[in-house]
Write a structure and sequence with these properties.
The protein is mainly α. It has 10 helices and no strands. α1 packs parallel to α5, α4 runs antiparallel to α5 and α8 packs antiparallel against α9.
Length: 199
């Protein structure tokens, strides 16, 4: 039965709110900016095309991505919640529409997982953000900061496992998320570098 929960969690996570909200506003964010199907790219696209209040759509999209993983993790546990994050990074719904792999960076949906599983992990992750921002701030203006996630997730897992030993399900869930998010964002960085070098 738990495998059915994992499949359901993946399908819920695959609902890419930023992409569909963008299409409702007449914007295809898969063809804008860094092509990431997430709240940040939606924000810049709405601002660029003047299709409304970009902050409103950023909060709406990011909030829904957080909420979907909060609900799944709360009701079905950390491993199911992790598969919701996998769904966001590699969506079965938006891939056929955009032909983009990966589809999202997994940042907002990971926050939802951390809120339910152990909010202390989230606080540690936020503590790393300014460090990596200072290291890569020039890169961020072009690449939207996917490189942050490549480094932050392994550091958070290492630090939090040492500080607060967790149950096996929580550790397994975080490992699944780390693999999905780091792999997805490494692909994003690779795509960015290829397009950047062609300029």
């Amino acid at each position: 039965m738990e495998y059915a929960y994992y499949i359901l969690a993946y399908l819920v996570g695959s609902i890419n709110f930023a992409y569909f909200i963008g299409r409702l506003r007449g914007i295809d964010i898969s063809k804008f900016g860094d092509s990431n199907l997430g709240a940040t790219n939606l924000y810049f696209a709405v601002r660029h095309y003047r299709k409304g209040n970009p902050l409103f759509y950023y909060i709406l999209s990011g909030g829904l991505d957080i909420l979907k993983t909060v609900i799944v993790t709360y009701f079905f546990g950390p491993i199911a919640g992790a598969f919701s994050v996998v769904g966001h990074t590699f969506s079965v719904f938006t891939f056929p529409l955009t032909k983009r792999i990966p589809t999202g960076s997994g940042f907002a949906s990971s926050i939802g997982w951390l809120i339910v599983t152990d909010v202390r992990w989230l606080l540690i992750g936020l503590a790393f953000v300014p460090i990596f921002y200072l290291l890569f701030k020039d890169f961020y203006t072009q690449e939207r900061g996917h490189i942050f996630l490549v480094f932050i997730f392994p550091f958070v897992g290492w630090a939090c496992t040492l500080l607060w030993p967790q149950e096996t399900d929580a550790i397994t869930g975080f490992l699944i998320i780390t693999i999905a998010v780091v792999f997805a964002n490494m692909l994003k960085i690779r795509q960015f570098l290829k397009s950047f070098l062609k300029r």
